Amino acid sequence: MSLPNDLKASTIAAQAGGVIDMPSGGVVPPVQPSTTFVRDEDYALVNPDNIYSRDNSDIVRITENVLARLENAEEALLFPSGMAAIAALFRTLPNGATVVVQSGIYWGTTKWLRDFSARRQIALHEVDASDASALEQACTTHRPALVFIETPSNPWLKSVDIARAASCAHASGGLLAVDSTAATPVLQKPLELGADIVMHSATKGINGHSDVLAGVLATAAPAAKVWTDIKADRHDAGAVIGPFEAWLLLRGMRTLPLRVERMSANALKIASWLKAHPKVTDVFYPGLASHPGHKVAARQMQGGFGCLFSFLVQGGAPEALAVVGKLKLFHRATSLGGVESLVEHRHTIEPHTGIPESLIRVSVGIEDADDLIADLSQALG
Ligand SMILES: *Cc1c(COP(=O)(O)O)cnc(C)c1O
């Protein structure tokens, strides 16, 4: 039933952690939709693992086990979305706590955190964590209970030195949590670099097919209070993923390492091509040697730099929207990490957060890179 311990990510993923459905012999685990599980004449559970599906689901456990192995974690917990995972983490903080959070990250996180912090009297300090000394300064000054970073960040693609962030969070008596969505567990392992919690929007690269909403938290220290609090919160407050979503996620994850490898190669090729284009004024991709976060990213990411990059075109919003409007292969849609390439004008979505009007964010899929370059070439004119 279970695979040996020392396997590489592609083997663990392809074999879904080694699961065989013994009753049928199937090489694919079944979906069990039942919400409740029966007891025998002596009132003993027929299967002691399963009572009620708010917290007991075989397919959820199987998927969490594969995620934990890919992340080199002791335990992983699935949530119905990435935001539900982030909310479960921050709900462990007492009222009046102090947190340091990276500025300029995924706007949904920032917006929710600002509202939550105001309601709970939490002192929220936003700092550009890609500047390691600014982060260290913030830790020393504020002594946060929790430091939350996102690397590579969305949509600026900034790199944060995870090991340094962990040291400064720990030195001030706090924990470090890392949103590693843009890297996926294949390219970056924050727990190995000292992070206490790693978070992913599994809606993105982990699922990879733009058809499941899911989130994950993982830890190397399942006995820690923060983790037992998160588990209790998920069980009691009920932010659980459904069995069909968990099954789809596991199916998508079988090809995760393969997809990430192809997407990273495509993204590097396209970002390099854009960098040399006369109508492009800048490209933000940690895989480019010219990127300010390249050295940090190269140190803490293995096997590529992911599917996400942003670039600036000459002019402003009208010029950027004209390019976006002419694209034929890239779908104009939010999100990232799917097999199909997506393009987004972030300034239209968040006009008040300082995103340049000329910025175009791209999530590169697994299509042929030359086809994608030809599309960008005709759109840039
Ligand atoms: C999408 C995203 C989230 C939120 O995840 P959902 O699954 O949409 O709730 C959080 N962080 C990052 C970096 C994301 O890209």
Automatic annotation (TrEMBL):
Coiled coil: none annotated. SUPFAM superfamilies: PLP-dependent transferases (SSF53383). The keyword Transport does not apply. It holds the Pfam family Cys_Met_Meta_PP. Gene3D superfamilies: Aspartate Aminotransferase, domain 1, Type I PLP-dependent aspartate aminotransferase-like (Major domain). InterPro entries: Cys/Met-Metab_PyrdxlP-dep_enz, PyrdxlP-dep_Trfase, PyrdxlP-dep_Trfase_major, PyrdxlP-dep_Trfase_small. Its cofactor is pyridoxal 5'-phosphate. Keywords: Pyridoxal phosphate. Belongs to the trans-sulfuration enzymes family. This is Cystathionine gamma-synthase. It comes from Hoeflea alexandrii.
